[in-house]
Protein 1
Amino acid sequence: MTNLTKPEMSPVNPDFSSGPCAKRPGYDLAHLQNAVLGRSHRSKLGKARLLEAITRTREILNVPEGWHIGIVPASDTGAYEMAMWSLLGERGLDILGWESFGKGWITDAVKQLKLDDIRVMEAAYGELPDLSAVDFSRDVAFTWNGTTSGVKVPNGDWIADNRSGLTLCDATSAAFAMDLPWEKLDVTTFSWQKVMGSEAAHGMLILSPSAVERLESYTPPWPLPKIFRLTKGGKLIEGIFKGETINTPSMLAVEDYVDALKWAEDIGGLTNLLQRSADNLTVLSDWVGLTGWVDFLCAEEANRSNTSICLKIVEPDITALDDDAQAAFAKRIAALLDAEDAAYDIGAYRDAPPGLRIWGGATVETADLEILTQWLDWAFATAKEEL
């Protein structure tokens, strides 16, 4: 069988992990030689580099001037939980979850914050909740892109313009790869290690004027750890949004993020970042359309992620197996590709249905994905032959 023959070419960069994600094309540690090391992050030089990261973020993402951008501890998780703990409880909450991370925020709201007035709106992997049922007189918490399910919201049209509640958006696998309508988003969070392929540990917190107003007018009834505190004396701590971080950041990681932002600027900014990711999804969409053994986990084309691209195996001989055997088969495909240095870390997330998850963010080269499709066919045929 032809598809049992190994492809002649391999991806130049086999890093298709959904986090930490592939480093940018042309990445070299030598680009970090100007990192502010051995100096205080509160020195003039340190604060200037942190502010540079904030400023470049604003420029690339086209964040409006009235929105505050801060660097905060603990990656996207820290940024989103900081927002939840600081802002929620003033009014009722509609919270949406359709995969692991969104459902994690539901756990926070229900079991940790124990909010009195909460509507939980969930959907199975591969689907979205009913967005038309969301009440924007309440606060609304959701992920823009479900990293572990490959399902994103199609756009921001479902978000009311005249809302009286706040929208809290986890955009960690969406920022820099999907068009975010800032006027619809009051809190937006993401991590450097996703679409920009930078080093993790720090998160970005972007606040609209309405979010700042809530912070300055509302005091939550629960204790706030120091790393969550965004106000002092009822006023926003402005320094957080000018590079005066709450805790000590890794200046090496900051330099790595700045390097990625410079690369984004060099290739044409957000327009080209979005196009690169869209092109990557097109490669896999075209292949899936021609391939009988695989399909998208997300059936609705408009809702398919162009970053965390989740696939399921639909070959009848495999779907006839029990759940454990199907999971083992998918893991075998991923293991074969790993052993051949053709693709690393493309197994489905541990809580997701069995399958494959391939990162298609802007740092992944389209040509590498084209080659990967040949290896996927080989790995499937090889794994099936082993049954």
Protein 2
Amino acid sequence: MKRLFLLCCLVIMATEARAQTCLVNDPTGTPLNVRARPNGPILGALYNGTPVQILEITSDSSGRQWAYIAPLEVGKRGWVFEAYLTCN
């Protein structure tokens, strides 16, 4: 039982350590589309300067990077084009 608890704690800590806070920085001048999956249907949009937390990163079949994000304020979780985020 102790091992299971320890394993759960390590998984949670690793997930939190990977999360990174960034700002939306879409150079097109339009809000950044938030999608159901990389290059998938649009769920909503976020304006430049919106703080988000990256929860996961993946690449599409063309090698472009997509980030699964959670807005820190208002907005939908989903996938955005990673190049349109500025992270410290």
